[in-house]
Design goal:
Strand order of the largest sheet: 3-16-14-12-11
Distance between the termini: 45 Å
Order of helices and strands: HHHHEEHHHHEEEEEEEEEEEHEEEH
Number of strands: 16
Structural class: alpha/beta
Number of domains: 2
Helix content: 25-40%
Amino acid sequence: MLLDLQHHCGPLPLDLFIYLRRPNSLKADMSNELISLPDDALYKVFIADLSNASTSTVPDSFFLVQRTAKFRRRESAVAEDDKCVVDFKSPFAEGLLRTRFANIVLDDAQRLFRVCTFDPEVNVLGGWIFEAQAILYTACRPPNHAKVFGPFKKMSFNGTKHEDHTFRGSPSNQTELRKDCNGELKFFDGMRRVYSYTPATPTQLPVRINFEPFRSRTIQKYDEIADITLNTQFYYVPKKTFNPLFDAFFFSLGVDIVNIHFLQMYATKRHEGTDEGLQLAQEVKELIDAHYQHSCTINVHWVLVAPAREHSFSWVMPPEWSEKQYADVTGEVFIQYLNLNIMKK
């Protein structure tokens, strides 16, 4: 019962009172109000003056405005330097909004990301906008996409999870990727070289992918994996709003080799997947294998796409990851860092 209340109502007592008396009424009212929201509702939320007591552009049926100021004057209880953030009021509200605005957020991700001031690591709404923007950049759609890519490297595996600590220090705002005359790629944070590597030669490809696999692709949205049209120029994004292990995938061809890349966009420090995601990955592999008449070796790569922030990242795979039935899809796990400062420009 408590979990059900938390899912539908969030922390507001009035919503809890209404839901306890008329649960279907609350859900119906929110669903009806969702229809009336304009297409630019999220944009208006991001540009709202949250320091003003009147936040009429923030629909209170779906969003919660929280003040974050630490100091308040005694005589007025008003924050001296009020700062506010907006987030989803409840998981139920989040689900409704993600369904309603999924296409709009992806199509308008760049504009939304530029005006979104909420850190994606600690704000679910901000994380959603980061995910959409990360999809655009890993499909290499924005003109400045090449400047956004930071280190692309294999994550270490400690027996329970995959980890990376490249940015465990404190990265500055001056991050850039450079390439020397020998083809060596170097990622700098100010004057400090954070990471460098030399792209693999074609003869190394069957063994390991040591280079950025991203190039310009056309985003294709799909309902069911069995219905997709296979094309190496496509970047596949499911229409479902919640995905158990990956947010997108694409594949590329080598000599008698197919490389499948499953991408998970995530801004927080830790991500966990489910076995349903492994089942979907298995369907993708089987579809591609059948398409090429079982004549190619198929390599599977998992890529966590994350912001270049000052903390470590970990990716906890489902317990079934080590089971024999999924051995064909549990390939190497990488992390691709993105420069948020350049993404904002």
